[in-house]
Amino acid sequence: MVNAHTSLPSLSPDLLPVHALIEAEQKEFIGAEDGVQRAGYFCAYTPPELLAAAGVRHARLFKAGSPEIVANGERFTQSVFCDFSKSCIGGFDKNEGDPLYQAVDKVFNFHTCASMKRASEVIGQFVPTTLLNLPRLRDQAASREFFREEIIHFRDDIAELAGRAISDDEISAQIVLFNKARRLIQRFSELRKRANPPLSGKDFLELARGYYYLPPEKLLATYQPLYEKLSAVKDDGKRPIRLMISGSEMADGDRRLVELIEDEIGARIVVEDHCTGLRPFTHTLREDGDPFAALADGYLDQAPCARMKPLDDSVHFSGGLAKEYDVEGIVFVYLKFCACYGVTKLEFLNYFQSLGIPALEISSDYSHSDHGQLKTRAEAFVEILNDRRADAVVAAD
Amino acid sequence: MSTTIIRPNSAPAEIIRDASMSKQKDMLARHYDRLSDAPQSGEKVCATFVPGNLNELIMCFDMVNNLPEVNAIQSGLRKQSGPYVLESEKIGHSEDVCTYVKSDIGMMAKGNIGPNGRRMPDPDVLLLSYTGCFTFMKWFELLREQYKCETVMLHTPYLGDGKITPEMIQYMVKQLKQDVIPTLERVSGVKFDIDRLRENLRRSAKAEDDHLWVLQSAKNKPSPIDAYFGGIYYVGPIFGAFRGTDDAIEYYKFLREEVEERIRLGKGPVTPDGDMPREKYRLVVEGPPNYTHFRQFWKMFYDEGAVVVASSYTKVGGTYDYGFRHDADNPLESLAEYCLNVYTNRNLPMRVDMLANYINEYEADGLLINSIKSCNSFSAGQLLMMREVEKRTGKPAAFIETDLVDPRYFSAANVKNRLESYFQMIEQKRSSSAAA
């Protein structure tokens, strides 16, 4: 089991250059002395288009998975926080935090869940932080108007950080660029619909990870040739057991479940319904007209996190994705104390059951103490799926 | 002016209550009977929550208000929540989920029998007025699946910057006009009448004046009330189904007169064991109480002469200290402002300000935080708040951990031990100050 924080992850050789590029970008983020401001954000509902338009360095802050960083965060929290939100706080610790987080000049957080809301208020003691509102009902006109206003506040805040005005044209240009990046990542994912996908779940997570650290121009220049190469791979060989992972955020550094399933058990993650996997790449933004309305509509219309209402949208999206990628089983993973996915897990699991797709429920944290248990449960689940596959073959004969 | 009430069966001893407490209990009992009678009377039922409760609006549609977290509290007080929580976990809800939610779901699974011993009605509409408690939002998703009834949400923007902007008010008024009111009209079959709302709001403002006066009476020495344990009785009508009614006006007038009399006589608060003899410690408390051991918990305070002079929990259903009153001249804007102001919608610095101000204004000896194991909305950030309040006021703070309605998480010996240490710490501070 390898932790992405400490050494090379078990990626396909084709993905290692992408990994190296991301690491280099992070180093530059931390060490560059060119006076360019550095902005961090937590949630997939934050439009990086605006940060890029302002010319500030920016990164999504989702590095987590280390129990030591969780312990740093626990100095300010109680048991009710999930390990991810504790890690977000712990990363900013002046002495034992994460260098990437320590380099950030300003944090922007769109109000997602109660833990992250409070975490960003705690982080305010380490670094200037702006908390912005995110409506929950995306089908209401009032929500869209209000979110557009919040995005304009966001623009003004970034402009202050960057020390310059941001024009509408600059924002529109970034919308076009980020759309290209989203489409390309979506196309990578489409390759996983093949019987024997040319990239693993870990590989895809690395591509998705790059989106949050690399400027889109750099991303496109690197990813396009890789896509050409992978799409040219012949679809032959044995069809692995196909799984979807659904649920809470899977942090950059929390790959242990995916590595366990793919490296140790031999099944394949072909799709993810979580905000650090495929989910944010299933939508694109309108490229004409008022850029603020395009951002407001686009981000509200993206595949919903369970923090949005109605929950049916999230549940049905998840089930739809499982069907679309023809998965044989779903691993529903939620972080302990996650109000988004812990409270609502039954709605998801019941729906998966109604679709006839077996699901394995895993409640997780970053303690690393449950590897054996996880392995036993995942192996048993994959064994059941193998049996189902064998039964289906017999029935077809 | 106190009455002695013998509790049936389960009570270990007589409980002494103020007349106002008995009056409040009667009001609540009547309300529960009204709810139980709803299927026969034909009254439509609107389930909603205490923080952001829009009772004045609900009444405009002749609907009766049902508050699931109050039901969970009642189950906790009656020692029924433990089995309900277990039932809910048996169905598949996680151990770390809010125990209000699990108590409510367990109660439904076991026949939905309310605190009056009668079946609670199914709601006709779920009105989710969201004011910062994320779990409440998800709770209603679960209830909607259960009841298959209409759901409508009012989203209150969080006061991340610590201020209410015109855009926030406009956003909320639009939601009220475009979604909430049309839904309530459709479900109830009653057309919205803004003048009726204005009347309800006028009544609310009147009761709010007396309610605030009572809470602020704790500035007296000795304090005539306990603003946490006693405060829970006092906020019942205004946070629940009575704000905007004549009953609420009458109750708070009655309560105010009762407290005025206690001040005149130089009396401290009434506790379940009678008048508190001597006020030794004045505390500000942050966080909800434990309900499964409510009386035992309270006793740990009054036995030591500790009275709570201000608490944040009594602000979850409305914060009136800073001048807000429901305003009949701006009815929808006023509902929006009410929701924006509730404690759970306030950011961390606003909460710290409030607690530090309470310590100074109420001349408290310190801050006690009762952190709730399963309450994310309240508990998150409390350690930081504790340190900040200590820094600003120079007064000692302490931290205990219990739960809302899960009896497994009330460790009496631990809590008592910590409280005793805390009181010793206050004594120590006092002697050091005196010596200096």
UniProtKB/TrEMBL annotation, chain A:
One short Pfam name that applies is: HGD-D
Q: Which family does it belong to?
A: Belongs to the FldB/FldC dehydratase alpha/beta subunit family.
Q: What is this protein called?
A: 2-hydroxyglutaryl-CoA dehydratase
In its UniProt entry, the species of origin is given as: Rhodoblastus sphagnicola
From TrEMBL, chain B:
- Gene3D superfamilies under this entry? 3.40.50.11890, 3.40.50.11900
* Keyword ATP-binding tagged: no
InterPro entries in the cross-refs: Benzoyl_CoA_Rdtase_B, FldB/FldC_alpha/beta
Keyword annotations of the record: Iron, Iron-sulfur, Metal-binding
Q: Which is one GO molecular function term here?
A: iron-sulfur cluster binding
The keyword Acetylation is annotated on this UniProt entry: no
* Family recorded in the similarity comment: Belongs to the FldB/FldC dehydratase alpha/beta subunit family.
Which NCBIfam families does its entry note? benz_CoA_red_B (TIGR02260)
Protein name from the UniProt record: Benzoyl-CoA reductase subunit B
